[in-house]
Amino acid sequence: MNVNDSESVAALLDAVGHTRADNENDADVVIINTCSVRGKAEDKALGKAGLLCAAKREQPLVVGIMGCMAQRLGEGIFERIPKLGFIVGARRHGSIPGILARIAAGERGIAEIGEAGEIVDVPHAHLDGGHAAFVTILLGCNRRCAYCIVPDVRGPEHSRAALEVLEEVRTLAAAGIREVTLLGQSVMNYGRTNRVWFDGSAGTNFTEPFPRLLEAVAGVEGIERIRFTSAHPSGCSDELVRAVRDIPQIAPHLHLPVQSGSDRILKVMRRGYTRADYLNAVVRLKAARADFSLTSDVIVGFPGESEAEFEQTRTLMEEAEFDNAFIFKYSPRPGTPAAEMEDSVSEEEKMRRNQVLLADQDRRGQRLNDLWVGRTVEVLADGPSLRNPARWSGRSPQNKIVVFENTGQVAKGELVMVKIDRAAPQTLYGKRC
Ligand code: 5AD
Ligand code: SF4
Q: What average pLDDT does this structure show over 234-239?
């Protein structure tokens, strides 16, 4: 979501004649887009902003902070870093071009925060020239997971009108985009909290708004792959599973955060499902499509998580056969219900649990990726690797990173067939065929 917001700001600034610097030393303005999900991300952003503001320069650098942390801390950020040029809240980044014009006129210390979740025209601008794009369909989140700060900073759910989303996808496709990723915190909730408007075209196979949107996006000429994130198990309705089964453009991959494998912890987290519910969704998705890959998020060291409960997360990850997983050490977020609970698992123990799950995931990733050796996969070519420009990388439909030799024939955004000859836990290697 932040990558998408950053791209949107870059595109807005391109449009009014700013140019991008190659690196921060050459820049007149640096904007830091921030995340509040974990304390460490905020500390890093504040540290970086402080360093940039303190840098000795002929022409003082203008530093701005946008996104969730700006929303959460508001003007209080100026007390910590008085030299900041501006701060912009989570749904206000459309005002950045105007703010830069004021900065050019000599103003400093500008704050545009707004209420979390206010309904304003959030920009959905895109940079030219890519082959894959994010399209926001749902802003905010209406769930209240006990550990999570997102609803406080990103506000309540609001779905964009289907016709507006489709127009954006059509424009992207006409500009050469082949893969879209539909974005929302709990993306399958699309159209549940406010009505979205479809045109009256008959013949749709679905009644629920999200599968219906998937079907409509698949109908856009030129869109070859559709992904969506982030998913919640409660969204895995029969219609959604049917959409995954029947719409060939939908990639056979889902990022489905589980957070914990323990029913007790899931309940305290207020996730709204049990271990069995989660595994049931997994079984149905995997039955819908061959070679379906699954990735997930897991939190270790949630308040009160016992050793046995942690072990349940371990076994769940194995049962669900996650192709990849992001593992997070629990971080108390001010104002969330979990922050009122005792942060009972020590930092060392969180670290240990983190390491155990990473090692498990490495072994599992290797085992699952080994099954791809000898097979041929369709890869959407992203571009050369930084270290060796003859080595290109791209993504398979399962969202696996595939590295292959490119002797010049393949262009960015092309779909190529690659025969896999080697596998690592998170990467497949092969040759074009
Ligand atoms: N502490 C640790 N991890 C968290 N996440 C969200 N909130 C917290 C928190 N307070 C993780 C969840 C979520 C991912 C984006 O970040 O796993 O899925
Ligand atoms: Fe946070 Fe839960 Fe909403 Fe995800 S679904 S953004 S974890 S509150």
A: 97
Q: Residues 23-41: pLDDT tens digits?
A: 999 999 999 999 999 999 9
Positions of CATH 2.40.50.140 in the chain: 376-432
What pTM did the predictor assign?
0.95
- Region 172-200: what's the mean pLDDT? 93
**Contact predicate 70/101, CB 8 Å:** no
CATH topology of domain 132-368: pyruvate-formate lyase- activating enzyme (3.80.30)
Q: Dig out the tokens for 423 from the structure.
A: 């596998």
pLDDT digits (tens, 9 = 90+) for 349-398: 999 999 999 999 999 999 999 999 999 999 999 999 878 888 999 999 99
Nearest to 352 by CA among 300, 311, 388, 306: 300
Instruction: State the distance from the centre of ligand 2 to the C-alpha of 148, rounded, in angstroms.
Output: 6
Q: Is 154 in the pocket of ligand 2 (CB under 6 A)?
A: no
Per-residue confidence (pLDDT) for residue 326, from 0 to 100: 98
Over residues 304-329, the mean pLDDT reads 98
Specify the domain boundaries for CATH 3.80.30.20 within the chain: 132-368
Report the number of secondary-structure helices (H) and strands (E) in the chain: 13, 17
Q: Is 262 in the pocket of ligand 2 (CB under 6 A)?
A: no
Residue 115: pLDDT band (50, 70, 90) is confident
Which residues does 106 contact at the CB level (< 8 Å), separation at least 6?
Answer: none
| Residue 259 near ligand 1, beta carbon < 6 Å | yes
Would you state the CATH architecture of domain 376-432? Beta Barrel (2.40)
- CATH: 3.30.70.260, 3.10.450.50, 3.40.50.970, 3.40.50.12160. Which one for 2-112? 3.40.50.12160
DSSP helix/strand/coil, 201: coil
Amino acid letter, 90 = A
- What CA–CA distances, in Å, run from 371 to 4, 290, 378? 33, 13, 16
The closest-lying atom of ligand 2 relative to the alpha carbon of residue 259 is 7
- Where does 73-219 show beta strands of DSSP type E? 86-88, 110-112, 132-136, 138-139, 158-159, 179-183
Cα 189 to Cα 264: distance, rounded to the nearest angstrom: 25
Give the pLDDT confidence score for residue 202 in this predicted structure: 67
Q: What is the DSSP letter of 301?
A: S
* Residues of each domain in the chain carrying CATH 3.40.50.12160: 2-112
Q: What digits encode the pLDDT tens for the residues 41-71?
A: 999 999 999 999 998 888 889 999 999 999 9
